[in-house]
Amino acid sequence: MRFTRTLTRGVIATTTALCAAFAVPAAAHAAPPKPTPTPFPVGALATVYQSDVHGDDVLYWPVISSFTDIRAKHPATMSENLAMAIAINNAAQHDPKLQKRALDDAYAIDGLSQTQLYAMTDAFGTELGADMRQALTEKRLPKVTALVDSLAARGQGVASSTLVEKEISDNPRPYVVAPNRIKVYNLPGKTDKDVLSTGSSFPSGHTASAMIRTGLLALMVPEFAPQLLARGSEAGYHRVVLGVHYPLDVIGGRMVADAAVADRYADPRFRPLILAAGQELRSELEWRCGAALSVCIARDTPYRSTAGAVSDYRQRMSYGLSRIGSAEAPFVAPPTAVALVQRVHPGMTSAQATDLLRRGAYPAGYPLDDQRAGAQSWQRLDLASAYAAR
């Protein structure tokens, strides 16, 4: 009897070990399936959305209109703005890698091709960025490209060109104001005319276009939100490197982009397009990586660490320009921006999201911080910090 029990236990143990060794992996660890790309219905794109314009104002000039006051009443700020533009531009003369990266961004955003979206994909990291570029090449992201691939993409809207805002500001560019102090950088085969944008400088349309793109992508896949915002701000910085914009121009471009992205997400008919494109992108990246997105991110090399991305973004919120307004002015959270935080932090109430924006806001009083009655604190809105908060 004792022998029989011993033998039975041995058989059971051996059988259990063999089953464990040759067991089929649980469904939770199965490789993600290959998704089937499905474009938006034509009617979802060929229609009018309330977010095609900036509410009753239509244009985005009210978001950045304090520039008029700066130019009229703060000549020292305008001089500092020019000096900083010259310093950033000149500092790049011995940095060919920076020159090339700035030029690549400039020519990508100039065109109507998908190269605009390609240029921002490095924000996804080394491997996942390459995966996304391959997916774009194979035309497997029709929803994403429909919303953000070029200036003509459905997600861009009137904010992407800033043409009317430029006409209102009528501000000469750095290379026009100081032609002998600005270095012109270019790619082989290109002329100065190709790289030196004409017309008014304020706000930067390239910055607005890039940051609308990265802002919408951040809502699609919030795991990359700080990196995407930092990458968009880098595209703006590159405009200063090339001598075609001042710091205030790219700060203004960022403010316009934030307001435009917030308008898109606040639009109850447009929001589902953003979420659908996000699911398309998530499924594609997980299939190519062979694991859940969180796993893929953990084993990839990031564009920037989250802390580094937040730091880069915050520095470019003012570029170190001197304070000109009250340091005690309260932060007025734009109501449409609150929902952006709630997208990245599901379960957070409006009050909690507003408080998070307030606690992470840039200090008050720096150029373009509009402190007039009824104004909202778009210049102080640090979405990168809010998105990264844990």
Tell me what the structure shows.
- The protein has 390 residues and is mostly helical.
- The chain has a domain at 65-323: Vanadium-containing Chloroperoxidase, domain 1 (Up-down Bundle).
- The chain contains 21 helices and no strands.
- Helix 8 packs across helix 16 (271-289).
- The radius of gyration is 24 Å and the shape is globular.
- The termini are far apart.
Descriptive keywords:
390 residues, mainly alpha, Vanadium-containing Chloroperoxidase, domain 1, globular, disordered N terminus
Could you write a compact summary of the structure shown?
This protein is an all-alpha fold and 390 residues long. The chain has 21 helices and no strands. It has a domain at 65-323: Up-down Bundle (Vanadium-containing Chloroperoxidase, domain 1), CATH 1.20.144.10.
Describe the secondary structure blueprint for this structure.
Layout: H1 2-22, H2 42-45, H3 61-64, H4 66-73, H5 75-91, H6 96-110, H7 115-120, H8 126-137, H9 142-148, H10 163-169, H11 174-177, H12 192-195, H13 205-220, H14 225-241, H15 247-266, H16 271-289, H17 293-298, H18 306-315, H19 335-344, H20 350-360, H21 383-388
Helix pairs in contact: 6-14, 8-16, 9-16, 13-14, 13-15, 13-16, 14-15, 14-18, 15-19, 19-20
